[in-house]
Amino acid sequence: METHTDRLRPLSGQVALVTGASRGIGAAIATTLAHAGARLVMTHRDSAEGANEVRRALPGDGHRIVQASADDSNALVELGESIAHNEGRLDVLVNNAAVTRVIAHDDLDRLDDDLFDQIMQTNVRGPFATIRVLRALLDADNGGVVVNISSVAARMANGSNVAYCASKAALDNMTASLARALAPKIRVYSVAPGLVDTELTRDWAPERRDLMIARTPLGRLATPQDCADAVLAAVTSLRSTTGVVIPVDGGFPLG
User: Fold this and answer.
1) What pLDDT score was predicted for residue 1?
2) Domain boundaries, the chain
3) 189 catalytic, yes or no?
4) Architecture of domain 4-195+227-247
5) Active-site hit among 126, 135, 164, 168
6) pTM for the structure as a whole
7) What's the distance, CA 163 to chain centroid?
């Protein structure tokens, strides 16, 4: 019989990995999953201080951080071995780590090969390699859930640069492919934020923010917590759904 505690902490006894969890959306996701009862493993590329700050604030015990870049497949293998040895299970994987740089879409020269490859390696190959490494853990017992953090840029082709938009479109396509390939035990989703109220957008000129808000039917930017709530819903509530993109954009594509 389900108890009140079960409803408040639906991930009690489970282990969740959130990549790129040292700030912003990743930190909000880690915090939300911890409040739901999960034990967290959080990765960072070069932000140990921020990741430790997030870890210290989490409710519950046994949370830890690991330095591992999404574009370093050897580090991801070591991460998988570490989780198998220390936690012995993995129920939730959130592929949040990503890179980008603001470059006008018509400035093709600034989007050079090295940056293009870095974006694709981190934003597309990274989530795939992480899933590949952790598949056996996610496939154990009753199965697990993968949530890839995408972007409205995948749908609108309007984001920080051309390669970033392409990488998120590829991530959504990969979500559908892997949902088919990993069923029935592993569910796979994309959560696709629109403009999110983070340090980046707070530095915009007020008139630019106001224009974006005016174009959003719900009349506000999404928050990191909105994104985290969507991840939690996918993990705990959408048990008969897989291979879909869940927008968190206030209806921005509607104009």
Assistant:
1) 47
2) 4-195+227-247
3) no
4) 3-Layer(aba) Sandwich (3.40)
5) 164
6) 0.95
7) 18
